[in-house]
Amino acid sequence: MTVSSRGPNDRLGALLALAQISNAGLARRVNDLGAQRGLTLRYDKTSVARWVTKGMVPQRPVPHLIATALGNKLGRPVPLEEIGLADSHPTPELGLEFPREVPEAVRSATELWRVDLDLRRGPAAAGGATAWPAPSRSPRTPRPSPAG
C-alpha cells in the first residue's frame, strides 16, 4: 500500500456513504472478490479507514475490486475516477462487458482508449522508469576496400 500526497479520499468516503457500506463491509466484499480471483487478501475496517482518511492507495488490483464491490452494491458501474483511484493500473477485465446506455458506453470506451494509449506510450509516459540498453562504445571496424 502506498501513501498518496492527495490527502483524504473524499470521493471514496462519499461513495461508501451513498452505498451505505461500512468500512468492515467494504473490506469483506473486497476480500471476497479477491478470493474469487484466486487472491488472498486480508483487508479490514482499519485498511478501509486509511484509504478514506489518509488517502492511502492499495496496490493493484485492489482499486478495481473496490470499484466492483461498490458497483455491485449500487447496481451500476463505478469508474476509478469516481472513487478517487484513477491513477491505478487498468483491470484485466476492462472491456469484457460493454454498457448498453450511451453515457456509460462512452465512459467505458474512453477508459479503454486511455489504457491503450498508455500501453502504447510505455512505462516512461506513465511516470515509470524505462531501461534501455547502453549504446555500443566499440569502435567501428573499417570496411575492406574493394579489390580493383
Features of the shown structure:
about 45% helix, 434 Repressor (Amino-terminal Domain), 5 helices, about 150 residues, MFS transporter, 2 domains, 2 strands, single chain, about 5% strand, mainly alpha
Description of the structure:
The chain is an all-alpha fold. The chain folds into two domains: 2-86, 434 Repressor (Amino-terminal Domain), CATH 1.10.260; 93-123. It contains five helices and two strands, in the order βαααβαα. It has helices at residues 10-19, 23-36, 45-53, 62-74, 102-121; strands at 2-3, 56-57. Strands 1-2 form a two-stranded antiparallel ribbon. The longest helix is centred in the C-terminal third of the chain and has 20 residues, at 102-121. It is extended, with a radius of gyration of 22 Å. Residues 124-148 are annotated as: Disordered. This is MFS transporter. It comes from Kitasatospora cheerisanensis KCTC 2395. Residues 124-139 have a biased composition (Low complexity).
Reconstruct the topology from this structure.
Elements lengths: L1 E2 L6 H10 L3 H14 L8 H9 L2 E2 L4 H13 L27 H20 L27
Antiparallel strand pairs: 1-2
